[in-house]
Amino acid sequence: MFSSVAPLARLNPFYAPHFQLAQDGVRKRTEPAEAPTSRRSLAAASAAEEYSCAYGSGRFFVLCGLGGIISCGTTHTALVPLDLVKCRMQVDPQKYKSIFNGFSVTINEDGVRGLAKGWAPTFIGYSMQGLCKFGFYEVFKILYGNMLGEENAYLWRTSLYLAASASAEFFADIALAPMEAAKVRIQTQPGYANTLREAVPKMFGEEGIWAFYKGVAPLWMRQIPYTMMKFACFERTVEALYKYVVPKPRSECTKGEQLVVTFVAGYIAGVFCAIVSHPADSVVSVLNKEKGSSASQVLMRLGFKGVWKGLFARIIMIGTLTALQWFIYDSVKVYFRLPRPPPPEMPESLKKKLGLTE
């Protein structure tokens, strides 16, 4: 029975090479040689044909980073109009009283083209963020999983998701910060600049390089909890959907059915992401608009009620955004035939220790 589950163990996202090497050494001493046509060799051959690269290889990480660029860059750019109104509601709630009022005021003042303000820094900034967020998440998930070992990685998988996503987002926000600062200036300060080419030299001339990185700490406050929720909630929701909702095992689902599960889990995760990260998002929007203010000063001035302005707009935006990002990211993996391990299952060795197998 143990030999039949060995191929599945290798596809586990928390597969630990050192642990597996030890198992293989035991197997070589205790099991006779198998014929080339055995079930295990056929499974290995089919896996080699199915995937374009090995799980955890350099090519795998590069293509995951590309998937992050496509998923984050395109989705954030597509939602620029909603993001613009949300930012304006946060920095000037007296003028922009609601989502619909915000759209109406913006169109009356700037025309329909005014809704696209800030699209260039959004596309560039969130493409770089997506590269680091998804690419480094895969790196840290495997790194931390191997450090824990197969059994502990399964038992502590939620903590593993949280740690890997937080580590990835730390670097992703450093890549995002300059373009986020320029975007907020363009969107929330009428007359300051209409394009990225106008905003960057003006910001640098006024405050130097600090203008682009003074918001990185509030970005960490906003994005790290957001990303931790985004990845951990998504991973556990996918696991729960296949266990309690989907009427058949993941292995029997078509690629299309698996992508539907991905979209649903992404939307559920997005709602929680928006709530967790919204107060810090309000601080970032106000901080990047004002000169000489600190995050603590802005937070004290906004107060508890003020930091929740625009939450409904952000739930709609982030829920849709997160669902689309996961759907696009998973679609990129399908297109490039990357390994997509199923939700983790309890290792056979742990089942034996817990007395769950005969």
TrEMBL record:
Positions of transmembrane segments: 259-280, 311-329
Example of a GO biological process term: mitochondrial phosphate ion transmembrane transport
SUPFAM superfamilies assigned: Mitochondrial carrier
Intervals holding Solcar repeats: 59-143, 156-240, 257-335
InterPro entries in the record: MCP_dom_sf, MCP_transmembrane, SLC25A3/Pic2/Mir1-like
Catalytic activity: phosphate(in) + H(+)(in) = phosphate(out) + H(+)(out)
A GO CC term attached to the entry: mitochondrial inner membrane
Purpose: Inorganic ion transporter that transports phosphate or copper ions across the mitochondrial inner membrane into the matrix compartment. Mediates proton-coupled symport of phosphate ions necessary for mitochondrial oxidative phosphorylation of ADP to ATP. Transports copper ions probably in the form of anionic copper(I) complexes to maintain mitochondrial matrix copper pool and to supply copper for cytochrome C oxidase complex assembly. May also play a role in regulation of the mitochondrial permeability transition pore (mPTP).
Name of the protein this chain belongs to: Solute carrier family 25 member 3
Native organism: Patagioenas fasciata monilis
Record gene name: SLC25A3
